[in-house]
Predict the structure of Zn(II)2Cys6 transcription factor.
Amino acid sequence: MSAADPTTNRPTNYCKTCSLRRIRCDRTTPHCLKCTGRGLSCPGYKRQIRWVNSIASRGKFKGLSAPTLEPATLQSPEAVPSTVQSRPLAQGELDEPSQEAVNQLIEYFTLELAPKNVWVHSPENGYTRLVVRLAHTQPALRYAIIGLSAAYQSYASASTTSGFSQKAHLKAITLITDQIRTLTSMGTNGKHTLPTGHQEATDAVLAATLVVCNHSLLDCSTADAVFHLRATRTLIKSHLTKGATDNELFTFIANQVASLDILACTTLFDPDLVRDVVMPRLDSGSVPFGHFLLGIQRITTVSTSSHSKGTPDGDPSFLEELEDELELARAATYMAVGRTLKPSRDAHLSDTTLLIEAFHQAGLIYACRRLGVGSIGGFEEVHRSKLFRLLKKAINEGSYLPGLSWPILMAGISCHGHHNRIQLVRQLCRDLVRSSPFRYYSNILRFLEELWESSDDDWILVARVWENRGEPLLAM
């Protein structure tokens, strides 16, 4: 009996990623272990909808592209804050997707993207509980989500990105701008508290802007991502000054923005940008990494302060104080995670522990490198060695590398001249790019290669050059 082709009898209900890899899928729900164990995106087992930039999929028009429209001229509406403006879309530029397609893309966001966009995924995830529900009634948020999901699906199915995701992304920006005009005009009419319906619209605009920021990173547009991140700052501060009730959704999104904002500022050097950062709202209950972010922002603020002469150069007591602060922050994170994760999620505890420990060691290395105090008593080397041991463990255990992008960058800026460590970071960066659709991760290795090739190990000089040429370095 001749051996059959292993793909001949392969069930059609394998996940798309396993089918493309030509391996047997274990069909674990909601995501197969063979994908998650390798840090790959598992699209699930339902019928996948792939967007193609053509008029028809069969017949005489098969393969013909839809006509493209020239971008409209950028407007400058007076009612919209300068940080939140976009070009209007021409009528008919985006073919409306069917309700089935919209539901499928929202479900993809719920199952695939929402778990990856928080520090620790649990049933309390605000994206799945709050944001997705609002997307069904708020068009700006809905288009932001389906645009991001369509882009991710193109990556997961190894197909070329269609024009649909970008058009949905642009339409979301236009709808956000229109909604802000409306809300701004209400504010100028002397109303300080928004009605319930308008309150939901405000929350949706804030959530949509955050999703749009994430979408920008898919295309390696770090300058656009910083632009949208600053827009979320404007929206949050406007929201608070109007006396709006701090509801659960707003608090969740504000804490999400704080995480991105503070980590983004670790590689940015504009004092105004650093000063206006959104801070985590620790009075809202369990906030994983909330105290850690406060400690990191303190380091960033000290480094960019006009009173930089007060930086504790050569003062061992400052490093001891900072180490104590971050150790307390680590303990607070463990407590917050313990309240969030259920005992049934023990399989995730190892990855979560590695994540917490890696960020703790990376935070102390960041303090040394940003403030220039790492040579005191071998302080930096102690924590650098611990971080590299954790990163080796991440490779051996197949951990989800995109969650470790910031610790990987901190490891990279601290290993100038150490060949073996450079090789490890180089491997991590390449695996990071392969395991995620976020193209901006490729900038991390480009930046580090430029740093490693220089005779000076001052990463801040290189990062300033990148920022000044409009290509800010990010590792969020």
About this structure: Confidence is low (pLDDT under 50) at residues 1-11, 49-92, 306-310.
